[in-house]
Amino acid sequence: xxxxxxxxxxxxxxxxxxxxxxxxxxxxxxxxxxxxxxxxxxxxxxxxxxxxxxxxxxxxxxxxxxxxxxxxxxxxxxxxxxxxxxxxxxxxxxxxxxxxxxxxxxxxxxxxxxxxxxxxxxxxxxxxxxxxxxxxxxxxxxxxxxxxxxxxxxxxxxxxxxxxxxxxxxxxxxxxxxxxxxxxxxxxxxxxxxxxx
Length: 197
Description:
alpha/beta; Rossmann fold
């Protein structure tokens, strides 16, 4: 059992080292996109299922609360948290509409949609991307497994951060590091280098 546990740590560490070299530029592009939106008074909406839903909430909490420094709250919404909206839309319409309806309601031109799907094939996330484009929003996609169907839905003006791995757990672990890198990058872009850096 100990060896099996150690294998998880080794595989995770190896992937993070490999992924960093591949993902640094798209993450930097995503920071620039989010910085531009936030500095112009826009907001970030985030959606995903399961572990990705938890990542959406984690990201929004870091922006509204704080990441590693005291600063003003930043506008970010996880579209995964309102059980009344989620259950009403899935009951009255379809589960695939739970995020797209919220993007229609809350999204505005200039906002950013952070779309998480480890496979790139989550139908409700894909629907949210379509509505975001209709509303002149930009999209930052966090995927893995080659990006799936999402690669066909993204525009040249969007940013795709695709973890080079096929195992869901490992992809989610890199997504978490990516979220922290995004939060740090946003803080530095908006408020400058921290005195402790």
